[in-house]
Design brief:
The chain is α+β, with helices and mostly antiparallel strands and about 325 residues long. The chain is built from eight helices and 15 strands.
Length: about 325
Amino acid sequence: MAVFPLRADGLLLRPIEFDDGPAVTDLVSDWEVARTTTHIPHPYDLSSAKAWIAQERTRMQTGEAVTLAVLEVDPEADPLVLDPPARLVGVITLRLLDGARREGEVGFWIGRPFWGRGHASTALWALLDYAFDRLGAERVLAAAMAENAASIRVQEKAGFRVVGARREEQTARGEPVDLEVRALTEGDYRALLAERLRILLVAAVALVDADGRVLLAKRPEGKPMAGLWEFPGGKVHAGETPERALVRELREELGIDITDSCLAPFTFASYTYPEFHLMMPLYVCRQWKGTVTPMEGQILNWVKPARMHRLPMPPADVPLVAMLRDLL
């Protein structure tokens, strides 16, 4: 237990505690969460949560499993503090299938209010790092019902591939269900880890109006992290500087003209997503020609820096908010 908590880009993973009971109850009593799991009963109450937590803590003490609360950490909390203000968003478990810890099976759930934020992928990668690097596992399994497309997508993005199927009793439905079983080997994990570290260069800008408000754009449905608010910008093409990329992107997306000289370099984000590592220089711009217009149907919002933390944002953008607030 000395290695816990695990930190993973806006999340903190620590052993489940009895104080987590009310939060667990609130999240898994939702039928949309329970129906895609095999062992969560429905309806679900606090006594069920307490009994389950007691069981999992015993399994951790005997070395049978590692069951971690997935906490969304306050982005402004001191990173050196082990217990920053945080809220439980889900749970992830690694069951050890043999005494030598060479094989395990991972399972996870995320509460519905926190879907679409990438938390499942982030937590899974953190636990895989623990399984392969700390425990020396050779293979990790994961199972999911065929209808659970979101969980399967998370597994496949992490490199899991189908190796079989099994039938289990589904507690919430009271009937057996068929599960697809996927596996990730230590070798595939290492190869994917190297690929995951490929660097994607994206340029972004904080457009600041005369009232000191900053423009944010909402990611549209159908795209990764849909519904989250981000700074305007886009990928830097080959042979293109970040400044020229922003000139192009703002013309195409917002219908405004800027010049390189209007862009003041401010700070940058460095963040590892499941598929790549993002490097994102952030510029500040206060002058442009034309009227800001959503040319691609996106939703725009002018927000005071002091209120930006109230909007859900991609993990890479979150640390930039406090810096902008101090600037503006």
